[in-house]
Amino acid sequence: MNLSQYTKEFRYNLQLAYPVILGMLGHTLIGIVDNIMVGKLGSTELAAVSLGNSMIFIAMSIGIGFSTALTPIVAEADAENNNDKIRSAFHHGLFLCIILGLLLFGLVVLAKPIMEMLHQPREVIELAKPYLDWVAFSLVPLIIYQAYKQFADGLSMTKYSMYAIVMANIIHVIINYWLIYGFWIFPKMGILGAGLGTVISRIAMVTFMHFILAKQERLKQYFHNFSFDEIKKSTIKKIVNLGLPSAMQMLFEVVLFTAGIWLCGNIGKTSQAANQIALSLASMTFMFAMGLSVVSMIRVSNQRGLQDYKNLVVVARSIFLLAIIIEIVFAVLFVVFHQILPPLFLDMSDQTQLLDNKEVVTIAAKLLLVAAVFQISDGIQVVVLGALRGLQDVKIPMYITFVAYWIIGFPISYYLGEHTELKAVGVWIGLLAGLSAAAIFLYIRFHFITKSLILNNKYKQNSK
């Protein structure tokens, strides 16, 4: 196959991907806005938000990972023109996401003592605990929102989640400013204000998403006579069988990055703050690959529903190639601007924090050079994972991601971070190793599965 067979798919891939990318950038922007606004208060406050969010990210990864089970089921049913299957997937998915959101909120609140067990700086823990309560509650509307989003994504209606996120970000920036620094009748709440701002913006987001989808003519049939009475064990089992391994895949990666936050916290608060700055920037560029991963899941699911496996491979590889090109562009930008970007997150004019802030900037600049390389591996592994979810192949990829991140990545991070002079940079070299291993093994899995499907389909056609 020549290159043009892949590049001709780029336009449609980008049409589907850009609303998803903007929506995911919006999710990341909520965290970045918190970091920038809180960073102006001091490096201790920034480290506290980093520590609190590290626990939130773990819970969020379970919820978001689980909800991705809806997209391939809905997309496959859409290709089959099976409206009953779409309705069932949406109703069951929403039911499960409501339960999961409440469970995750409770688990995060109960898990707060873990911060002491991890030997984090005491002044950071004292600030992080009350902040964590508010942000943990925001998981409930966030996971419910995910059910609506994955449902719409499965129908290739990717723009509506983008509109919801844009609206949520506008609300978040305004409320954050009022509550963090104090404005008019609003008290100065510091990092608590950032947590409360996140809660309010996420409640607004899920409310907006419900009403904007319910008003669409095409979707009214799925909102009409909405009842939890039609919940069936068999459908719940199908979603859980897809959703649980998907949640574990995302969990293994997020916990690896969270372990990186904790390792940097052990090194010192300047390393932890630097890690948070570099992670915020790397997360922002990663959202482009995440958007393409959703497109990969949608388009592969559609082709699976049509049983057109040869075209499925062309479509998937076109998305892989597009992700590699985009991530290489970002890698170059990180190398060029690695000294310029970190100071944007700190108040460099504050003389009382100047020494700490200079050290944070120096460490963060080095981390961005490692991030330049690892985001290419990260981009590849996430789009291939999206294609495998589209094929509804989730169990073997779950084992692959565990081995890549925890048998290969984490031991390298731990050793280089704790036992060498590389410190925070060593932690990130371990992340790079884990992501690269995942990218290689997941692609091998995709190649094996699709080759088998094409051969089996060819055999069936020949035997007719």
Key phrases:
464 residues, mainly alpha, 17 helices, 0% strand
Task: Characterise this structure.
The chain is 84% helix and 0% strand. It has 464 residues and is mostly helical. It is globular. The protein starts with a helix and ends with a helix. The mean pLDDT is 87.
SSE topology:
Layout lengths: L3 H4 L2 H30 L3 H25 L2 H10 L3 H28 L3 H4 L4 H16 L1 H16 L4 H23 L9 H24 L5 H4 L9 H35 L1 H38 L2 H29 L16 H37 L4 H25 L4 H40 L1
pLDDT under 50 segments (min length 5)?
none
Radius of gyration of CA atoms, rounded to a whole number: 22 Å
Q: What structural class do the secondary elements suggest?
A: mainly alpha
Give, in order, the helices and strands.
HHHHHHHHHHHHHHHHH
SS element count, helices:
17
User: Roughly how many Å apart are the termini?
Assistant: 28 Å
Describe the oligomeric state of these chains in a short phrase.
single chain
Percent of residues in beta strands? under 5%
Shape: globular
Number of distinct beta strands:
0
Q: Residue share in helices? A: over 70%
State mean pLDDT (0 to 100 scale): 87
Largest sheet: none
